[in-house]
User: What shape does this take?
Amino acid sequence: MLSDYRRYRFYEILPGLSIWGTLLVALFLAFFKPIWMIYGIIVFDVYWVIRVLYFSFYLILSWRRFRRAIKIKWLDKLNQECGDKYHDLKNVVFLPMYNESAVVVAETLSALVRSSYPKENLYVVISGEARKQKHWDEVRSKIAEQFKGVFADLIFYTHPEGLSGEIAGKGSNINYAEKEFKKYADRKGWDYGKIIVSIFDIDTVVHPEYFSHLTYLYCVHPNPTKSSFQPITLYNNNLWDSPAILRIMAFGTTFWMMFSLARVENLVTFSSHSMSFQAIIDCGGHARNIVSEDSHIFFQCWLKNSGNYEVTPLYVPVSMDTVRDESVWKSLKNLYLQQRRWAWGSENISFLLWEFRKHPEIPWIKKFVLLFHEWEGKWSWGVVAILLTILGRIPLWVASEEVRQSALFFNTPYVLESLMSLAMVGMFLSALLGMLLLPPRPESHGFYKYLFMLVQWALLPVSLILFSAIPCLDAITHLMFGKYLGFNVSAKKRTLT
Assistant: This one.
C-alpha cells in the first residue's frame, strides 16, 4: 500500500515518464526498427498537419473576433444593456510586484487612467515584497504621489518574507494581498459576488476597452461567480527592441492564447486574467506554494464547484513585456527560464490526479477531458519539435542497405517534405498575423526592420527546440526527481543598455 507521499510522487513522475518514454521509444525504433519508425513518423506527420490546419482555423476565427471586439465602444454597450446594474460592481486590479521599476508600474497605471471605464470606479491594489523593502518603499512613494486621488482607491500591501507554507513568488504575494483585501471589503460591507478582481502582472498594459468589456461580460453572464475571464495576451510593450527569438516566442504565446480562446471547452486561465472575488474566497485564494498559480487557480475553482466552472473568452487584449534584459545573452537566458517555469505547470497534472479521488460527484468523463487536455498539452510541448526535426530523420541516416533498397525508404523523404510543406501554412499564417499585431514602429527603428520581422520566422525550428522543448524537458525532469523549482522572476526591461 502506497503512502500518500509516495502516491503523490508517483503522480508527479507520470508526465515526465510519458514524455521521456515517447522520446526513448522513438530513439530505439530509429536505430533498431527503422521501418517501424518510418511508418510511425509518416503517420505522426499526417496527424500533425491536421493539427496545424485545425490550429489555423481556430486562430483565424479568434483573430476575427479580436478585430471585431476592439472596435466596439463597450462602455456605451454596457450602459445600454446593463443600465444601473453595473454601478453596483467594483473593479479591483491586483498588481503583485518584486523588483520592477517605478516607470513600469506608472505605465501600467497610466493605461488604467486611459481606460474608457471610469477610473474613479477602479480600485488598484499594489503588493510589494518585504524582501525588497528598500526598492518597494521607493516605488510606493513615487506611485502614491503620482497617482494620488486618481482612482477610487490606491491600496498598498507589503508581503512579509518567510511566511510558513509559502514559496517566494507571485502566488504567495497574491494570496497575502487577497487576505488583506478581504478585510478591506468586509469593512465596507461589500458583496464578494459584486467584486470583479483582475490579477495582472505588474507590466500589464490594458487596452482602453478592457474593463468596459469585462464589466459587460460579467453583467450578461448567467452565473459570473462561476467563471473566470481570459483576455488575449500580447507582448507588445518592448517588442521592437527585443531579439528575434524573443519576438517569435512572444508571438507563439499570443497565437496559442488566441487559438485557446476559440475553444472554450478547453480554456484554462493563463497569466493576466479576471474573476469574481467570491470565486477566489470560495477556493481559498491563490495557492501559496505553487509556481503556476495562474492556471492552478482555475483548477481550484473547477474542483470547488464540482466541475461547474468555466473560462469566458475576452477578446479585448492586454499587453505585456517580453523577457528582455540588458544583453541578448541575458535575454535568452530569461526566455529559457520563463519557458521552463511555464512548463512547470505540469505540476497541475499530479494535483488533478490527487484531487479527483476526493470528488466522486464529478462525472468521470469531465475529469478525463480536463486531464487529457492538460496532459496532452505538456506532452506535445516536450515531444513534437524533437520528434519532427531530429528523431524522425534518424532512420534516413542510419538505415541498413536492405532498408534503403525498399520503395518506402526511397519515397519517404518526398512524403515528409510534402507533409512539412503543408504544415508551413501555420508558420506563414503566424508571420502574417504577427505583422498585423505589431505596435507602431518607434522612430529609433528604420523601416527596414519590418523585413527582419518577416525573416525572423526562419528561426522558428531552432526556437521550438532550444526555447520550448528543452525547457519543458528540463522542468518535467526536475519534477520527476523531486527537484522542485522555485518561482524565477523574469526580467522585463524596456530599453537595452
Remarks:
- The beta strands are 90-96, 122-129, 153-159, 195-199, 205-206, 227-234, 273-276, 310-319.
- The mean pLDDT is 91.
- DSSP finds 18 helices and eight strands in the chain.
